[in-house]
Amino acid sequence: MSAELKNTMSFSEEQSMLLDTAVEFCKAASPIAEVRDLVLTDSGVRADVWQQIVDLGWTGVAVPEDFGGSDLGLAAVVPLAESMGRHLFGGPFVATQLATQTLVAGANAEQQAHWLPKIVAGSAATIAFAENDGSWDLQAISTTLTAGVLSGSKTLVLDAQIAELIAISVRVDGQVAIALLPSAAIPTTQISRDVVLDETRRSYSVVLDGVRVEPDQLITGAAAAAALQATEQAAWLLHAADACGGIHATIDLVVEYLNTRTQFGRKIGSYQALKHPTVDMLMGLERARSHVYHAASLLSAQDDAEVALRMAKAESDDAYNFAADRAIQFHGGFGFTYECDAQLYLRRALWLQYQFGDSPYHWAALQPLLLGN
Amino acid sequence: MSELAEFRSEVSAWLSENRPAEPDFLLPETFMEVGTDSQFHYLRDWQQQVYEAGYLGMSWPREYGGGGKPQALQDIVTAEMARLNTPFMMNTIGLNWAGPLILSRGSEDEKQRYIQAILSASEIWCQGFSEPDHGSDLGSVQTRAVRDGDDYIVNGSKIWTSLGQHAKHMILLARTDPDASNKYAGLSFFLAPMESPGIEVQPIRKLTGEFGFNQTFFNDARIPATCRMGAEGEGWQVAMSTLTFERGVSGGQAGGTSMIAMKVADVVELARRAKRHGKPAIEDPWVRDQLVRFLSEEQGDRLATARAKHPALVVDRPGALALSGKLRHTEHRRRLCQFAIALQGANGARYMGDAQAIEGGKWQRSYFNAFSATIGGGTSQVQANIIGERVLGLPKH
Fold it and tell me: Measured between CB atoms, does B295 come within 8 Å of chain A?
């Protein structure tokens, strides 16, 4: 049995300011009509909005000062990811943050100096860790690097088309390594778009056969393991934060409809069959959000955050999927249509659920951590 | 060591040294389950001892018997009591409802008269809000109070009057004006003396099979008009403010634990001891899955308290955390107790009195008793209405 869980909750002045800015900016930059317009585009992001994100300094929030960032750490990215999730942002922000974590945790000084300033300045980056077998175990890597040449393929790679850097997990002589590959090194014919539930996301499969990797582009040994772990934990946290924002928006959508729609002579929100599950959505949000900000606090304090992060991911996935599922149902016939915005949130909820371990996966992983073997 | 940390270890030492010996009877888990005289005296003595040591009502004003100290100190004591699982502070209605109410809107005389006796448990309080026919709908209270000179004459009955047989006073909600413009406007609030002639307390047997709660009957009971709190017709507002103390919105409670804390860790330990289908329950995949979910839920509640201290993290839905505390905690406990029986497998069917019952059948009793909290003080369904309407802005009708 593990020691008693901590209840650390820190929220700095900087985080608070970022949250305020993010709430305002994301609301203005991503009205729902805009979200729907972007679904029809290739990149899924508006260049001017991305530039504004860069100008706000958000791409450098978790980058050390030496490389032009503000060095506030991953915890400061949480309010940003949450606000973006609330407004269904597409675009390469999350993927770039994950690649940033790979670089900060594992890359050597030259590699960091090469990539991090570019990221701060607005270059998109992404990670290619997942493979076709669908395993969430980041050690399950069949892509190999032999004599400087890759063999294998990766899938569910976010924003591969616009990312300048793709961090690829590989095995070299059986050992885990990460290749920091400029995307230009991969022939465009080897990059194909995945069809995924969440139409605001851009996800790709990448065939790596024959692609060359230079020795100075590799992260190896303990640094590679550290990079994988940091990236995975960041993914749990940022996806959970995105979900919290999404649940918030889902509740807003439902509450508005329940206050508008009349059936059998009454506002439908007055029916407890709809009112009480909506309260359950709120309870789910509040719990998930507490877990998310707690996990972020532990990471800031450089405490062991695995339990907190897994709880945050599992709770937020469960809460978002419940909320979005009920949001469809509560919109009645309209909820069944593509036109109803509830589907946008349900698709995002499902997308997040299957990123870096769904809730059953994390609940199972928590068992040995909390109960022993 | 910081001053607070020093205080914490002082409290911890005192509690460990002075906690009463385990009794030879099964203790109740909340004030609502005090069914026998031996349980009553055991708990009353303990509260008195805690108060005399200066560990109860620490933040209440010194001139009325409180400690006049920062709330942070009382919070430490309460947390240590929970951690060490010491018996709870039995005069719950006085400490958490009547006391804060009297301090916030009582007269000087009332503060002098009542506060210290609440803390020392020399005067026990009970609650007279709910009625047999109206349950959580306090606005429909039918018990009548009719002004007669310097008195009111009260007729009707109240249910859930836990500790009624021991209580010196009742916080009573009664209808003084049946013709008021709306049902809320006709109510008044009293600090009613239970010794008044015409008040009769009748014990009710609970679903556990034990006694511990009551119905209180008023037959032309005469109570002095001076014990009314607030103006005639203001009873609803006064009663609502006591409910906010209960729901922990505005603080002001005297402190101390008011129930035996039940932690998921206790159920984890039970799962190690108990067998399910011939094997330690802790090895059962379903049990393990449920346990981690309960642990996460419990942790979420602890974190809610921590998060509520950061205004920036609760601005979106003000009141969401504070108003949902009762719903979250009571439903969590009910489901946890239900699960604690389920993990026992075939032995889950046994009950108190059976020699084979796991831990004397206490989990079965806990499950039954858990309903007192999901029903009393506004059922979970009423809580959900309140949250839906006040926090989310959903329509009432």
Answer: yes
CATH 1.10.10.10 fits A224-371, yes or no: no
> Token pair of A2, please?
């593990």
Please tell me the CATH superfamily of domain B3-123, with its number: Acyl-CoA dehydrogenase/oxidase, N-terminal domain (1.10.540.10)
Q: How far is B289 from chain A (nearest CA, A)?
A: 7
pLDDT of amino acid B133: 81
- Distance set, CA A252 to CA A35, A69, B284, B385 (Å): 17, 34, 40, 17
Decide if A281 contacts A251 (C-beta within 8 A).
yes
In the numeric block, which tokens belong to residue A158? Answer: 């976010």
**% residues pLDDT > 70 (chain A):** 99
CATH entry 2.40.110.10 includes domain B126-233: yes
Task: Return mean pLDDT, chain B.
Answer: 92
* A137: three-class secondary structure by DSSP: coil
The percent of residues above 70 in pLDDT, for chain B, comes to: 97
* Paired tokens of A180: 């920091």
Q: In the CATH hierarchy, which fold is given to the domain comprising B264-391?
A: Butyryl-CoA Dehydrogenase, subunit A; domain 3 (1.20.140)
Question: Helix (H, G, I), strand (E, B), or coil: what is residue B125?
Answer: strand
Amino acid code (one letter) for A313: K
- Burial label, B254 (beta-carbon count in 10 A; 0-12, 13-18, 19+): buried
The phi and psi torsions of A179 (rounded to 5 degrees) equal: -95, 125
Q: Tell me whether residue B246 is one of the annotated catalytic residues.
A: yes
Measure the CA–CA gap between B324 and B220, rounded to whole angstroms.
Answer: 39
Q: Is B396 on the interface with A (CB under 8 A)?
A: yes
Mean pLDDT of the region A307-312: 98
Global pTM exceeds 0.90: no
Distances (CA, A) of A327 to A157, A197, A244, A353, B397: 29, 17, 15, 17, 21
Do A266 and B397 count as a contact with CB atoms less than 8 A apart? Answer: yes
